[in-house]
Write a structure and sequence with these properties.
The protein is of the alpha/beta class and 463 residues long. It has a domain at 3-218 and 359-455: Rossmann fold. Helices cover 35% and strands 17% of the residues. The radius of gyration is 21 Å and the shape is globular. The termini are far apart.
């Protein structure tokens, strides 16, 4: 029997072992959040805590679950993943993009978001892999050898065990969402679930589809598309553009010195002090100036400690204040034994610098999941220069999908929200005026996008 088959049988046993709600009431209730420090009153329930995914090595992943604001028993479950690789879904997805709360400037209190996605769904935020945020491992070498394969496997184990803790959601319609390097995490986990379900006579995890934004997709096409965006948005000179294309082999394991020199010159001398994740909005003046990337990296330019973008470009700083408070950690049931020997950070530099395996192209995975009939949406904020819209379009074009609904502008209120094209098996949409974190820059448009995705409807063609 193959190791993969043994793993599936073991996970199936875990999943099916909790046959009654009574069996999991106690651990579920132990994870209930009474209230977070400085939190406004809410009507929905919240839970957070740890799920152990590898007992021998002591890997445990931290989650924060916010039920839907109304009728949670009737609404789907959505898992949100941020990328990096090595960045926190609590810092970004939950606290400045799609979650119900935002953090004030002093890190002392929370206020409600008008466009929280928990108006439409039950939201499960996961800090993944181990070493990100509050997620931890007792095996220090895990921080130096993380990669795509183990991240996907651990996420599958997490889900199986989480559903055992929350059996009322076991058969709920389930979707995965994320952004950036979650362009790997999301479809890779979807494939893990698809393979897991195929091994049995009925679906065990009721996966219906996924949606991912500004997604790292294909090493070659992403990098060519990124340099094209830089040039077409006047970030670099004709000289640098031509030099990069001439000297950089984006399929090579290691760049030549000439390629490095061309990239370094463009990024260090021509970009200027801009937020590369949102090129038309102000930078956070409180952020260190040495965080600007110095070269184009093979993982879609995402192996760099990212800077926040948006109307308030310093929100990442507020998260680091808030989540390092002992009273906040206690309320979240996080770092309960004080075993994490470092402060909570939005991104892990150690993981980012030591990522081991990365799938060169997600396109074969997309083809398999399209054939499986999943609902798949890909969106792009059009002012992101890190994983820009040109990169995503170059990548998706090589799926060679049949167009069902040709390119058209979609509307949010009376304004164009972006542009979209519907293919046989996939919907692509841009979000006008949004950077890398689409729900941060354009929350209303992102909310409409999410609503349309969940309901399987085309984006509005008229105001």
């Amino acid at each position: 029997m193959s190791a993969w088959r043994r793993s599936l049988i073991f996970l199936s046993f875990l999943f099916c072992s909790a046959t009654t709600i009574v069996a999991v009431t106690k651990p579920q209730e132990m994870d209930r959040i009474a209230a977070l420090p400085g939190q406004p009153a809410v009507t929905f329930s919240q839970f957070s805590g740890y799920i152990t995914v590898h007992r021998q090595q002591g890997r445990a992943l931290f989650y924060w679950f916010t039920e839907a604001a109304a009728e949670p028993e009737r609404k789907p479950l959505v898992l949100w993943l941020n990328g990096g690789p090595g960045c926190s879904s609590i810092a970004y997805g939950a606290s400045e993009e799609i979650g119900p709360f935002r953090i004030n400037k002093t890190g002392s209190s929370l206020y409600l978001s008008s466009y929280s996605w928990n108006q439409e769904a039950n939201l499960l935020f996961l800090e993944s892999p181990a070493g990100v945020g509050f997620s931890y491992t007792n095996t220090s070498s895990n921080l130096l050898d993380s990669g795509d394969k183990r991240t996907a496997q651990d996420a599958l184990v997490f889900l199986v065990r989480w559903f055992s803790r929350f059996p009322q959601y076991k058969h709920r319609d389930f979707y995965i969402a994320g952004e950036s390097y979650a362009g790997h995490y999301v479809p890779q986990l979807a494939k893990k679930i698809h393979d897991y379900n195929k091994a049995y006579s009925h679906p065990i995890i009721n996966l219906k589809g996924f949606i991912v934004g500004n997604a790292v997709t294909d090493t070659y096409y992403d990098n060519v598309g990124t340099v094209t965006f830089w040039w077409s948005h006047s970030m670099i000179s004709d000289r640098s553009y031509n030099s990069i294309l001439k000297n950089c082999n984006f399929t090579a394991d290691k760049y030549s010195q000439r390629c490095d020199d061309a990239l370094n010159y463009a990024m260090n001398h021509e970009f200027g002090d801009i937020d590369q994740y949102s090129i038309y909005t102000p930078t956070c003046e409180a952020a260190p100036k040495n965080e600007t990337p110095t070269r184009l990296l093979r993982l879609g330019n995402t192996l760099v400690r990212r800077r926040v973008s948006g109307y308030d470009p310093c929100t990442e700083n507020y998260a680091e204040k808030y989540y390092n408070r002992p009273d906040v950690q206690k309320a979240l049931h996080a770092n309960t034994t004080a075993a994490i020997p470092y402060k909570w950070t939005a991104c892990s530099d150690v993981l980012i610098k030591n990522w081991k395996d990365s799938q060169a192209s997600m396109l074969p995975t997309y083809k398999e999941l399209i054939a499986a009939g999943l609902r798949i949406w890909v969106f792009s904020g059009d002012t992101d220069s890190v994983v820009p819209v040109t990169a995503t379009r170059f990548s998706l074009n090589h799926l060679n999908l049949t167009v069902k609904t040709p390119w058209y502008p979609w509307y949010s209120g009376h304004q164009v929200g972006g542009w979209t094209e519907v293919y046989d098996g996939l919907t692509f949409a841009t979000v006008r005026g949004a950077g890398h974190e689409v729900p941060l820059l354009q929350p209303k448009r992102a909310f409409l996008l999410f609503h349309s995705f969940l309901n399987g409807k085309k984006l509005p063609q008229k105001p």
